[in-house]
Structures are given as structure tokens and as C-alpha cells.
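Task card 7
Instruction: Convert sequence to C-alpha cells.
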Amino acid sequence: MGNTLCTTARRGGTSCQHIASRSRHPARPRPYVHAVRANGLLFCSGQIPLDPKTGEITGATAADQAGRCLENLAAVCEAAGATLGDAVRLTVYLTDMAAFGPVNEVYESFFESDPPARVAIAVAALPRGALVEIDAVVALPA
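Output:
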């Protein structure tokens, strides 16, 4: 894929590929990787609501930020040849659980049928002052 950077590494006898989308996702600071492909699964690193063009946090509310996080995850999935709809589990990190309802509405709009398993966790703080971070485990198409 022209917009994808893949590097291969060995971990514990398992071949892994590190996935990074060059055009639709914010640049990554080292040693962060967007995702690792291993044994038919894509383990996506947590995404905060960074605008891919500016690298800045977007969204004034947790719900707005959740939408950007999910769009960023979708771009990572696409770079690996999958879709966000292939996700089997997502973890949503929130700095304020009072925002769970509005975040859940945005989440639901991305997974209208057959949503993946989900965990929601309250945290004290997130990188760069984000209100939301979301990671994913995705089943890669055969």
C-alpha cells in the first residue's frame, strides 16, 4: 500500500508487522507504533483525538474527541487491510465518566450492528490533555 509503512519484527517466535498510515493519521512519535499485526490480529495502539493534518487535539467535548479517535483507528485499520468493523474489542479511556453517555452515542454510530466487545475505564489524565483515548484489537480478514 502506498500510504502504509510496514516493518517486520520477531517477538517470542511470532512474526509481527508494525503498521503506520502515512496520510490519514497523525505522525507518530518514537518509539510509538500505530499497530502491530500478529497471528491474524491487529493490536492498535491507543488513539487520542489528533487531527491528521495538524497533529493537534481536536474536539471540545469528549464525544467530539471520541469521534476523532475512532476515525484515527479506522485509518490504522485501513492501512492494515481491515476495517474498524472488523474490531473484536475496544477499550475507551475517559478522564470523566460523566461523559460516557455522549461518548457512547458517538461509539454507537460507528458500530450500528454487531459492535465489538468494549471496556470503558476512567483515568486521571491522558496524553496532551485529551479527554478520550481508544485502542482496539481487530481480526484481520483472511
